[in-house]
């Protein structure tokens, strides 16, 4: 009798809300992720019912469906279906797969709810045309009236889009049972709680239980599920780390809240690539996919103004044109400023040192400002050459010719190193109308000719500056 009572006795443990590490006692700091004050108490049943020390025996059951050769398994049920939002379909690999669970994470105010509401409306229109079930949008953060106001503002109202405001998991599953949706959107997984699990909404045990229930529904019914996930102050997805392992796709929605550009990246994707990037323009009328985002990044690339140089960066496999601007101004202060925006600060400092040591372009007594246009981020080493040309152009007051684009990594000795994807960068530059391209000499012999673009291979930074800027 005593052994059965001890076996059924509840056991108290402590879980880290950041990484899911378990401890038998409370600690101030998690020993796994080193976060402070993140251990939360939860109670679980412990011990085997028989009280034996050995492992319990598991009985073999007759499977519901026998195993078949893999060649006889139909793949049509797992084909991706377009959502109506081209940039999202690009990132997901063609659309959403039936039964897939997609987690969308991002900082507060970046536009996650706006994006998914637009996706839900577009998917509802597509489902109505195909004769499929409606789209169910469940919000746990706002009331249904608040979501309706946003839907009116971004023109996301469709008769096949159903809206519900719920915070209880059982009620959410009841909506799924009664409506039979073709797509389920939950905003957000941290606001849904189950009465059968201890802890508050957003805790480790609650997030794990809610995610597990939604994943089971998705797999049983073949319904794709889009989940909104909060992020911590460090940029990681809030909740247990196991949440990212359970879902099929993890996407990051990022962008500067003071800029219009938003980027969608797939960090994990079981059904497609993880090197595609979707571009969106967030405005007052909602969010719009940008199949060609060059208009945001090339505001003055063609005008002959000192201190500008265009380049082409690679966001995954996607070439993105970026304009780099530089300003060199004299200062009376003892410590000149080095201010950057959208570029790697350390690489800009290295480029300034190389210009001073190898070309004699001394900016030690000047303030130097380097920025990109439109909130774009150009942090890859291939932007070094454009930064150097823009700084020299600004320091001497000599504008670079219109139609010039440059990309290449600059070493400490001044050599211009090879970079990846030169052919794709050249093709994008030709499409945008650039007629001159400065590229690294290494690997240029393997390049195919691009119509309308004169390629200038250079091996040293001095050659690049000489080819980019006319003699002052």
UniProtKB/TrEMBL annotation:
Pfam families: AAA_25 (PF13481), ChlI (PF13541), Zn_ribbon_LapB (PF18073). CDD domains: RadA_SMS_N. A motif (RadA KNRFG motif) lies at residues 268-272. The keyword DNA damage applies. GO terms for cellular component: cytosol. Keywords: ATP-binding, DNA damage, DNA repair, DNA-binding, Hydrolase, Metal-binding, Nucleotide-binding, Stress response, Zinc, Zinc-finger. One of its GO terms (biological process) is recombinational repair. Residues 367-472 are annotated as: Lon-protease-like. GO terms for molecular function: ATP binding; ATP-dependent DNA damage sensor activity; damaged DNA binding; hydrolase activity; zinc ion binding. The keyword Plastid does not apply. PROSITE patterns: RECA_2. SMART domains: AAA. ATP binds at residues 106-113. InterPro entries: AAA+_ATPase (IPR003593), DNA_repair_RadA (IPR004504), P-loop_NTPase (IPR027417), RecA_ATP-bd (IPR020588), Ribosomal_Su5_D2-typ_SF (IPR020568), Ribsml_uS5_D2-typ_fold_subgr (IPR014721), Rubredoxin_2 (IPR041166). Residues 77-231 form the RecA family profile domain. Plays a role in repairing double-strand DNA breaks, probably involving stabilizing or processing branched DNA or blocked replication forks. NCBIfam families: sms. Belongs to the RecA family. RadA subfamily. The middle region has homology to RecA with ATPase motifs including the RadA KNRFG motif, while the C-terminus is homologous to Lon protease. This is DNA repair protein RadA. The gene is radA.
């Amino acid at each position: 009798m005593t052994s059965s009572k001890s076996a059924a006795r509840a056991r108290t443990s402590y879980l880290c809300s950041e990484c899911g590490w378990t401890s038998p006692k409370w600690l101030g700091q998690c020993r796994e992720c080193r976060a402070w004050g993140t251990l939360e108490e939860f109670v679980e049943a412990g011990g085997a019912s028989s009280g034996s020390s050995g492992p319990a025996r598991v009985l073999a059951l007759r499977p519901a469906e026998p195993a078949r050769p893999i060649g006889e398994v139909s793949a049509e049920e797992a084909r991706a279906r377009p959502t109506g939002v081209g940039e999202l379909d690009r990132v997901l690999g063609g659309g959403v797969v039936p039964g897939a669970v997609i987690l969308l994470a991002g900082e507060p105010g970046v536009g996650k709810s706006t994006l998914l509401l637009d996706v839900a409306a577009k998917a509802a229109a597509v489902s109505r045309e195909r004769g499929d079930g409606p789209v169910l949008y469940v919000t746990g953060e706002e009331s249904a009236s608040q979501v309706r106001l946003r839907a009116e503002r971004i023109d996301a109202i469709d008769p096949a889009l159903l809206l519900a405001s719920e915070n209880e998991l059982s009620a959410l599953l009841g909506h799924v049972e009664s409506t039979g949706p073709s797509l389920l959107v939950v905003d957000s997984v941290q606001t849904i709680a189950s009465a059968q699990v201890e802890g508050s909404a957003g805790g480790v045990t609650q997030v794990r239980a809610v995610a597990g229930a939604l994943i089971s529904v998705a797999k049983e019914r073949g319904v794709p599920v889009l989940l909104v996930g909060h992020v911590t102050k460090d940029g990681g997805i809030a909740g247990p780390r196991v949440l990212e392992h359970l879902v099929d796709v993890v996407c990051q929605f990022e962008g500067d809240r003071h800029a219009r550009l938003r980027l969608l990246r797939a960090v994990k994707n079981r059904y497609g690539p993880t090197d595609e990037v979707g571009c969106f323009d967030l405005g007052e009328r909602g969010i719009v996919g940008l199949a060609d985002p060059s208009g945001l990044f090339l505001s003055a690339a063609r005008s002959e103004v000192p201190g500008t140089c265009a380049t082409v960066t690679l966001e995954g496999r996607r070439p993105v044109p970026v304009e780099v601007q530089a300003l060199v101004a004299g200062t009376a202060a003892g410590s000149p400023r080095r201010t950057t925006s959208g570029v790697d600060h350390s690489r800009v400092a290295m480029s300034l040192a190389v210009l001073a040591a190898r070309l004699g372009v001394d900016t030690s007594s000047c303030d130097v400002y380097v920025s990109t246009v439109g909130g774009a981020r150009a942090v890859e080493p291939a932007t070094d050459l454009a930064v150097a040309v823009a700084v020299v152009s600004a320091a001497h007051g000599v504008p670079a010719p219109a139609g010039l684009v440059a990309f290449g990594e600059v070493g400490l000795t001044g050599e211009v190193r090879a970079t990846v994807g030169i052919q794709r960068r050249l093709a994008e530059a030709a499409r945008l109308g650039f007629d001159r391209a400065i590229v690294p000499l290494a690997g240029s012999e393997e390049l195919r000719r691009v119509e309308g673009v004169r390629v200038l291979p250079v091996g040293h930074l001095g050659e690049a500056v000489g080819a980019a800027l006319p003699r002052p």
